[in-house]
Amino acid sequence: MTETPFCMVLTTTNSQENCDAIISRLLSAQLVACIQTLPVSSHYRWEGKICSDQEILLLMKTQSRHYQAVELAIREVHCYEIPQIIQVPVTDGFQAYLHWIETVTLHPEERG
Q: Which residues form the signal peptide (predicted)?
């Protein structure tokens, strides 16, 4: 897969408390620029059964180079055994917005 400079990372959780922990962890570490949350109905197969749950979808905007750190941070605080953590490449966008993502997701050691 060709890497693009920016991406969205998606995850879901069934708990507002877990959602808040993920948001706090990622924003305080400057790994993502923005997280949007939406209520969703999820339907899936788990351990041989068809399941349906009300969940919270987190849409996170970041730089692709931060994906591994974002994934690790989510896994550290997520309440699911196997959480959805998916990277979606951003192939284009409003340049001022993409520049903002780049600016606010810089690690402190990268700041000049």
A: none
Amino acid at 23: I
Neighbours of 109 (CB within 10 A): 5
Whichever domain contains 44, its CATH number is 3.30.70.120
Whether 61 is covered by a domain: the verdict is: yes
Structural domain including 44 reads: 6-110
Q: At a CB cut-off of 8 Å and minimum separation 6, what does 29 contact?
A: 69, 73
Backbone angles phi, psi at 92, to 5 degrees: -165, 165
Please tell me the total count of domains within the chain. 1
Read off the tokens for 81. 């055994």
Residue 1: inside a domain, yes or no? no
22: in domain: yes
Tens-level pLDDT at each residue, the chain (112 residues): 557 999 999 999 999 999 999 999 999 999 999 999 999 999 999 999 999 999 999 999 999 999 999 999 999 999 999 999 999 999 999 999 999 999 999 765 654 4
